[in-house]
Amino acid sequence: MAGLRLFFGRWIVTIVPYVWLLVFFLAPFLIVLKISFSATAIAMPPYVPVFDQLAGFWEKAKELSFDNYLWLTQDALYIKAYLSSLKIAVISTLITLLLGYPMALAMARAPDRLRPILLMAVILPFWTSFLIRVYAWIGILKPEGLLNQALMATGLITEPLQIINTDWAVYIGIVYSYLPFMVLPLYATLEKMDYRLIEAATDLGATPLKAFWQITIPLSLPGILAGSLLVFIPAVGEFVIPDLLGGSDTLMIGRTLWVEFFYNRDWPVASAVAIILLLLLVVPIVIFQKMQERSA
Amino acid sequence: MAKTLGPVRRSFQPWNDPSEPAFIELRNVTKRFGEFTAVDNQSLTVYEREFFALLGPSGCGKTTLLRMMAGFEEPSEGEILLEGQPLTGVPPHRRPVNMMFQSYALFPHMNVADNIAFGLKQEGMGKADIAQRVAEMLRLVKLEEFSARKPSQLSGGQQQRVALARALAKRPKVLLLDEPLGALDKKLREETQFELADLQQDLGLTFVIVTHDQEEAMTMADRIAVMDHGRIIQVATPAEIYEAPATRYIADFVGDVNIFEGTAEPLAGGGLRIATSAGFAVEVAAAPNGAAAPARGDTVWFAIRPEKMVISHDRPAGAKEGTAPNLIEGEVWDIGYLGDVSIYNVRLASGDVVRATRLNADREVERPITWEDRVWISWRADAGIVLAG
């Protein structure tokens, strides 16, 4: 009896996350996937066919088509949006890496009693809503904003810089928002690293810079990869930052998706856009997992 | 020194040769970490081709001394010279000194060959030369078949040899070894001690080793510096350290010892009589090692090693009647049978316990000494040593 209870106990513990994933991830995904093969209609819901009953399942299934995906290749807008999103995400990831690595290294090398304070400082922005923090950047970046006032006060510029509503603002917003996601995994790997390895390298004749390239960087590769993915993946699909800070010509797939869904009410095309975006993101995740397996 | 204590490499005693130049020289070196003084105004000379050991308990400053030689720490005061050239301000990567780390500090992302080649690559050595030197090093430490393995795929003993090969690959002027055998099990450690000592002789390099294990230091080193609380207390050969320790601390730290406190009474013939607090008298031929002869009534300590005492059931023949010096009677309190030797803890009438050892030269003994036996312990007048502090 006790054994049976134990069996069910374990079974429930394992099944709960799977049920969660099934209900909140797989089911919505399948719905979106199905819609992406449907056709637009002026109806409620705004697409056909609707599988509201099992009768006539096969007849309705025959109406499904790849038309929406073909449409994505025919209109240059979508490809441009995907490429532009990838470009913005790649550049943002590189900038966060360049900013985040020295930060993480300094934190890992800081005296023991300072480390929790520095860690807290990195996590602190999460206590304020993401949306509010992005809005705050409008106040900083706008022509009469804090940044321009400060630059003009120092005499570096005479005319306010147009930063808000440009790609620059999008980069600033993404780098600012996602920097902690880069710093934290980097800090975790660098903090674990044995400092004696660096001492051994310098003892064997490596200059501090060479020791950094040959020892620190290769050994922190898992952190670099994890941090880069944590920044890259949400950056590709980012909607709020380009919408609030970017200009009308800032092309990102997250915004295109929003416009298709809520402005054009073209659910099937929007679903196709979402599915392709998902595939674009799955590829780096799979590569990452393969690399993790190999290093383990 | 008139008499030689223990074995010495006859041809190699540069410390006794005033014309021999210093190879590594520490001049009044002090190292402070905040309030804590790790090394306190110490001077030391190490000679070329010497195997030198820094021995002491953890926190005595021996590792700090080694790290200053490597360049990981700079002295707060004083200077370190190598072949007469001051090393002050020279960063570790420019010092002709290599270190073998206690944790080995092998690069986990490189295989054995790349680990060994690391230092040579920094020098800008040619590929062919590197390959040749790496092969030579692998042969030296008998790891030829393991060159493509990662450190995590090696046993502790193999990792230790990779660390040694990596530190030797650049043919440093001095090899610094920080507890090199600390992570090995006892059997392997004993084997490796002799290998390391042979290697040092064959290569003709200067080794400075840090260890807390007196056996390790005694087996390998030409000379030992015993340290405590940031100070070097005695620098001498292993035999001198053991047979003529400078202080009670060293006598107690290196090997097993009986120490008795007593009152000195100089004898007419130049010897010394000590009335110990344990109730027996000691007569020795010579005064304390290096110190001035104690005056009548001074407090001194008599130290004697357990193996220098003779334990028997019978009162030794020739001993004077009554309470003779260098002779004590007691009861066997505890026995430790170690195979090659037996340890006897003998309790005296005063309650003090004396430890004596006996070599088990015979397989069978007619009347073995056993628990609660009345026994006599005696020693020769030159068997022990008088210490003033």
Briefly summarize what is shown:
The complex is a heterodimer of chains A (296) and B (389). Chain A is mostly helical.
Describe the model.
The complex is a heterodimer of chains A (296) and B (389). With 296 residues, chain A is mostly helical. Chain A has a domain at 75-265: MetI-like fold (Orthogonal Bundle), CATH 1.10.3720. Chain A is 75% helix and 1% strand. Chain A is built from 14 helices and two strands. Chain A has a two-stranded antiparallel ribbon with strand order 1-2. In chain A, strand 1 (39-40) and strand 2 (47-48) form a beta hairpin. In chain A, helix 13 (253-263) packs antiparallel against helix 14. The longest helix of chain A is centred in the N-terminal third of the chain and has 35 residues, at 2-36. Chain A is globular. Chain B has 389 residues and is of the alpha+beta class. Chain B folds into two domains: 14-96 and 172-250, P-loop containing nucleotide triphosphate hydrolases (Rossmann fold, 3-Layer(aba) Sandwich), CATH 3.40.50.300; 257-387, Nucleic acid-binding proteins (OB fold (Dihydrolipoamide Acetyltransferase, E2P), Beta Barrel), CATH 2.40.50. Helix content of chain B is 22%, strand content 31%. Chain B has eight helices and 20 strands. Chain B has a six-stranded mixed beta sheet, sandwiched between helices. A five-stranded antiparallel beta sheet of chain B has the order 13-12-11-14-20. In chain B, strand 4 (77-82) and strand 5 form a beta hairpin. In chain B, helix 3 (127-140) packs across helix 4 (156-168). Chain B is elongated. In chain B, 40% of the residues are buried. The A-B interface holds A 194, 196-197, 199-208, 210, 214-215, 218-219 and B 70-72, 91-94, 97-99, 101, 103, 105-109, 118-119, 122-123, 166-167, 170.
